[in-house]
Amino acid sequence: MNTKIAVNPEDVFLKTLQPKGVVFLSILVLEGPNILKFIAPPSFMNAYLEKGLYNNDPTLILDQPVLGFYRWERFLFGQKIINLIHQESGATFCESMVLISENKRLVLTVGSKKELSLAQWFFEEKPNFDYLLS
Asked: What is the mean pLDDT of residues 102-124?
């Protein structure tokens, strides 16, 4: 009997990041202001949406063509989201990566228990996010 085991690609990303101290992973895919995909721990997603924390998410207010890597400590606001990530996962550092494809934007946010360079991970692992942006 040949059965295929479905592997959730987000779990694969988390497994490659866990040795670097990552304990939290969130992926948002947006088209303009609309959230197309939201992948995160369910309790975090519920609080994020119920409390309207997207209104305080600095990665969502960036101009549409802006991309890059962002350390949350550098933002003037977003503290409620950082507190929720700390509370949910025990993370002490938060960083986001913003990628753009045509009219969609991907925001990957990690929380880690030790200092991490999301940029270094991205350029070493070369993860493929195309399926999320399609």
From this structure: 89
Distance CA 69, CA 77 (A): 16
Backbone angles phi, psi at 75, to 5 degrees: -85, 145
Give the gyration radius of the chain's Cα atoms: 15
What is the per-residue pLDDT across 57-78, written as a single tens digit (0 to 9) for each? 887 776 666 678 888 777 777 8
Tell which wins on pLDDT, 15 or 44. 44
Output the CA–CA distances (angstroms, integers) from residue 81 to 26, 38, 87, 134, in the order listed: 12, 15, 10, 27
- HEC secondary structure over the chain: CCCCCCCCHHHHHHHHHHHHCEEEEEEEEEECCEEEEEECCHHHHHHHHHCCHHHHCHHHCCCCCCCEEEEHHHCCCCHHHHHHHHHHHCCCEEEEEEEEECCEEEEEEEEECCCCCHHHHHHHHCCCCHHHHC
